[in-house]
Amino acid sequence: MIYVVIVFLWLALLLYLVMGGADYGAGIIELFTSDANKSRTRRIMYNAIGPIWEANHMWLIIAIVILFVGFPVIYTTMSTYLHIPLVVMLMGIIARGTALTFRSYDAVRDDMQKVYNKVFVYSSFVTPLFLGIIAGSAVSGRIDPGANDFLHAYVLSWLNWFSVAIGFFTVALCGFLAAIYLIGEATDHPSRKSFIRKARIMNLAAFVAGAMVFIAAIIEKIPLVQWVFGNIIGIAAVSAASISLVVLWYLISRGKRYIIRVLAGFQVTMILLTTTYKHYPNIVILKGGGYLSLLENRGAEKAIESLAIALLIGGLFILPALGYLIYSFQKKGQDIEGH
């Protein structure tokens, strides 16, 4: 049963990165859009993220519940030593959702709309930034359970070049995902051309940020190169991601709009596989060479068994419901366009 729980944890993180990442990326795209084009970008963005933006955080909640119930030591360690970036990320999620709701459905249209817009776009940037920082901190080896002062225990555990570089890579990746998804939602050539240009920019930004991650890893003596290229799975995943990127841009040039979304999601899957395979089952690497393992630091067997059963049963309801939700919004959009 433990492997069922681990698979669900990995899938929850993947789906949050792919679907939630594109959601955050829509705000990032808007942040770097000129004022003249913001209104058009928002309209297309609503059609793209409408079906899933409220459902995205379900995957994050599932991941948190899995850690809380199935791996309490790991949950406690991360929520203690990374509580600052976790609080910032959660505040960003709340601010973003609130701003999007009020700017979309507020009965009064006044200057507060400008405030809502700014809160939305900046929280869309900050939230994935700190999500990446948290992920980087978990494997950076900077979390120090033996620290005896606030700075080393709760600040330097996440405030380092490697974690921050991963944060910016996450932001660029979210922007790239959103741009690719928005290409498929654009119904006119100028909008499609604009999103293709933004996808190129975000692709370049992700490449630069990725290079920064490797440079920071070398400087801070984190064996990222070995994790990625020191095994056949990592090499195969990197190769597959690179090939799919070339195919993606070829299909974009051929005017394909929907298969490119699958390829973008596939690339994110390969990135996550590359960065998690080598040090599995160690999910948290501590300062001094210690680690927290999904196998060694799991909860009681009864808790794991109950959690696995709940996840399996829940999956039977959640996934079909989510599929129908997306289908319903797409159908509604097609009906509106038809009229």
List the helices and strands and how they pair.
Layout: H1 2-31, H2 35-49, H3 57-70, H4 72-81, H5 83-105, H6 112-139, H7 150-155, H8 161-185, H9 189-219, H10 224-229, H11 232-253, H12 259-277, E1 282-285, E2 291-293, H13 301-338
Main location: membrane
Transmembrane segments: 6-32, 53-75, 81-99, 119-139, 159-183, 204-222, 228-251, 258-277, 307-327
Pfam family, one: Cyt_bd_oxida_II
Can you describe what's shown?
The chain is mainly α and 339 residues long. It has one domain. It is 79% helix and 2% strand. The protein is built from 13 helices and 2 strands. It has helices at 2-31, 35-49, 57-70, 72-81, 83-105, 112-139, 150-155, 161-185, 189-219, 224-229, 232-253, 259-277, 301-338, and strands at 282-285, 291-293. A two-stranded antiparallel ribbon has the order 1-2. It starts with a helix and ends with a helix. This is Cytochrome d ubiquinol oxidase subunit II. It comes from Mucilaginibacter terrenus. It is a multi-pass membrane protein. Its main location: membrane.
